[in-house]
Design brief:
The chain is α/β, with parallel strands linked by helices and 722 residues long. Among the domains are: 16-73; 270-432, no CATH class. Helix content is 44%, strand content 14%. It contains 29 helices and 17 strands. Strands 3-2-16-15-12-4-11-10-5-9-6 form an 11-stranded mixed β-sheet, sandwiched between helices. Strands 1-17 form a two-stranded parallel sheet. Strands 7-8 form a two-stranded parallel ribbon. The longest helix is centred in the first third of the chain and has 33 residues, at 41-73. The chain is elongated, with a radius of gyration of 35 Å. The model is unreliable at 681-712 and 714-722 (pLDDT under 50).
Length: 722
């Protein structure tokens, strides 16, 4: 509707309806009794059409006013099934909304003025209905029916209750004309940060993004890599990932890694693949504290793990957590094994001399620093000190066994608890897989394999059961993924294959829910430099303080946040988090009107004028922020502000999910999802998931694993372990 005045007033009575009524009456008179207006029938018909045309224009203007007033109190329902989510090769669908500018700030400021309160606050009928429901909650039968009637969620109910979204509907209702909000895919390589407090729709937004990433194909018909990190465990998220993978025909490329369910989980060796051998030590020692006096112990742990990893590789063994733990506890066996192989290649007769030296040893002639070591270790050390053989790996092992046993145990004390966390119980089978066990149907994957297969991976870290193990495994995975990204950046994804090109890169979509649980120094290079390898990180967390508390350094937290080019801000409770958005926005001028009236007595007693009066309407401008932190705090559930495409501010609301009848999962994953719902997720999800509630009932059956084992075997085929 065109606005002829400088100041826009939409919160007012729809006075255009008066014109509509007059035009309608005049049109009827022109048609029924044209003679009463001194018109012949033909002129009466023309006049009626003119009145109807003008009335239609005024009715459209009145409709805009009424629709605006309705949206201020209640937004239209916005529902979409998973099948209806649009998938584009150029843009990422986010929801519906509008680009926020000065007009919307002006309209929002008007809603807080007292003269417009009756258009913004609930109607008296609405308040009476809610009061009746409260009073009649436990009333006997005839009266309880009245409460049920007033609570009827139907457009036919004039006192229909608002949806349980909270917040201020006016934040979105100030713009009645919505459009689809999309993010260009070219912007995603700059990474995306989603902030919002608990149960306000972060996971729903993640489902929208993941659905499109799984189903998207490029111009050559190839899918994209999708990796979902879920530290807490959200059953609906797991369900959505699997269903979309199956719907896109990618069921054979779908992997589930879940620390809480090792029997049906795929297996993964976080230190089994590397570009340089030193990466093994970095991924393990990187989990240790580097603050204060702990820095020295961390550096020693790095060196010692590096020595062990180099020796294992030289012996033809793939490093894993179990092997490293075994040799950290007892390095003597590794020293003896490596020395045997080394002397067999270089000096076959050396072993005879070592055996003779071993036979001469007793408790009196063993060096003090070697007490507690095996005698063969002491004999090898004495032989090496005489012949002066140089080998970097052997020299590293020698430096390890030369330490006093008690002193050595103290300086590796910080390393052993970490390895214990990663090698205890059935988790050891997941993180240190037996590659030679062909009877185990659980697939083994690594990130390079995932990238080459364009696979879909769901990583459930079971953080609510054991946060320490979840953080350690998540950080190891991130560190491994950074290493793979570096390799892809230099050589491409097909390095080593015929016709490989270093320019071959594909989008690698990494979705990290509750990513503050996974934060570490490994995450910084991923968001800082991973874009060159095609990694597109979408991180979801609650507050900025979560990131800072996890890293323990404000500067590093700022470094992480500064590498996210796209920001989606849902409702938050921390003002500092809201200011991450509001401080990046400019101030705008809003109009304000003031009625000025006054009267002045005449000072001339003989004059004809006793007093003079004047009335003025003054328009002034005031500079205000585009939005305030209080507006972010008051967002309804499922709504967000988006700062995308170089700082453009959009107001967005996400679609509510509608149930889809064709959403089914294998029985074992159904049971896993049911367990996750019962133990991980609050049942009060705002979007009220309606699909397959019966999956949550019943105990785990004996044949829990059969379906997934068959699926895993079919998906892997005869693929060789990495």
């Amino acid at each position: 509707m065109a606005q002829p005045h400088a100041v826009e007033f939409l919160l007012r009575p729809a006075v255009e309806l008066y014109s509509v009524a007059v035009c309608t009456g005049a049109a009827v008179m022109c048609l029924v009794a044209p003679w009463s207006l001194a018109l012949n029938p033909l002129l009466g018909l023309g006049s009626a059409l003119t009145f109807l045309a003008f009335g239609a224009i005024r009715l459209a203007e009145a409709g805009a006013i009424l629709r605006y007033r309705r949206n201020i109190r209640r937004l239209p329902r916005y529902v979409m099934t998973s099948r209806e989510v649009p998938v584009s090769q150029q843009r990422l669908f986010v929801g519906r909304g509008f680009r926020w500018d000065q007009r919307h700030t002006h309209r929002l400021m008007q809603t807080y003025r007292p003269e417009f309160r009756r258009y913004v606050e609930p109607t008296p009928l609405y308040r009476i209905a809610r009061h009746v429901e409260e009073r009649l909650e436990f009333a006997p039968y005839p009266f309880s029916r009245l409460a049920r009637l007033t609570a009827w969620d139907s457009p036919l109910n004039p006192a229909r209750p608002l949806p349980p979204l909270g917040g201020l509907p006016r934040l979105h209702g100030i713009e009645p004309h919505e459009v689809d909000v999309t993010l260009p895919l070219a912007e995603r390589v700059g990474h995306t940060l989603v902030l919002g407090t608990t149960r306000v729709g972060k996971t729903r937004l993640a489902e929208l993004f993941i659905t499109q990433d799984i189903r998207r194909r490029n111009s050559a018909g190839e899918h994209e890599v999708v990796i979902v990190f879920d530290p807490k465990g959200d059953a609906d998220l797991l369900k959505r990932v699997y269903i979309e993978a199956r719907r896109a025909g990618r069921e054979g490329e779908f992997y589930v890694f879940h620390l809480g369910w090792p029997d049906i989980s795929a297996r993964y060796n976080a230190v089994g693949r590397f570009g340089r051998i030193s990466e093994v030590a970095t991924r393990i020692a990187g989990q240790l504290s580097g603050e204060g006096n702990s820095a020295a112990f961390r550096e020693f742990a790095w060196r010692f793990v590096n020595i062990i990893a180099r020796a294992l590789v030289e012996l033809g063994q793939r490093p894993d957590y179990l092997l490293i733990q075994r040799h950290v506890i007892n390095i003597d066996a590794l020293f003896i094994e490596y020395a045997a192989q080394f002397f067999a290649k270089t000096e076959p007769k050396a072993w005879d001399v070592i055996v003779q030296l071993e036979g001469r040893l007793n408790d009196k002639n063993i060096p003090r620093n070697m007490i507690g070591r095996e005698r063969r270790v002491v004999a090898i050390e004495q032989y090496l000190s005489q012949v002066r053989v140089y080998d970097p790996v052997l020299d590293g092992l020698r430096s390890g066994v030369r330490y006093d046993r008690t002193y050595f145990d103290k300086i590796v004390a910080s390393l052993l608890p970490l390895l214990e966390k990663l090698t205890t119980g059935k988790i050891a089978q997941l993180l240190a897989p037996n590659y030679s066990d062909l009877n185990d149907p659980r697939p083994i994957f690594d990130w390079m394999q995932i990238v080459r297969k364009r696979a879909v991976v769901y990583v459930g870290l079971d953080a609510l059961s054991d946060a320490e193990v979840a953080a350690a495994v998540g950080n190891s995975m991130f560190s491994d993924l950074v290493s793979v990204a570096g390799h892809i950046y230099k050589f491409g994804i097909d390095d080593g294959l015929p016709g490989a090109s270093a320019n071959t890169k594909i989008p690698i979509n990494v979705h990290a829910d509750e990513f503050n649980e996974l934060m570490g120094d490994e995450f910084i290079p991923m968001v800082n430099k991973g874009g060159g390898a095609g990694i597109q990180v979408t991180a979801y967390t609650q507050t900025l303080s979560d990131i800072e508390a996890r890293i323990g350094n404000r500067a590093k937290a700022g470094q992480v946040v500064g590498n996210f080019n796209n920001l989606f801000m849902l409702r938050v409770r921390e003002t500092a988090t809201a200011e991450l958005l509001t401080r990046q926005l400019p101030k705008v001028e809003v109009y304000a009107t003031a009625l000025m009236s006054g009267a002045t007595d005449s000072s001339d007693p003989r004059g004809n004028t006793a007093f003079t009066s004047n009335t003025q309407d003054r328009i002034s401008t005031t500079s205000v922020p585009l939005i305030e932190p209080a507006h972010v705090v008051a967002l309804p559930k499922g709504q967000a502000f988006g700062l995308i495409e170089g700082g453009n501010l959009w107001k967005i609301r996400m679609p509510l999910p509608a149930p889809d009848p064709d959403e089914s999962m294998p029985k074992d994953l159904q049971e896993l999802a049911g367990y996750m719902r019962q133990h991980y997720v609050d049942a009060g999800d705002w979007w009220e998931s309606q699909a397959l509630p019966e999956l949550q009932d019943g105990a785990l059956p004996d044949d829990l694993l059969d379906g997934f084992k068959q699926m895993a075997t079919a998906g892997e085929g005869t693929e060789a372990a990495p």
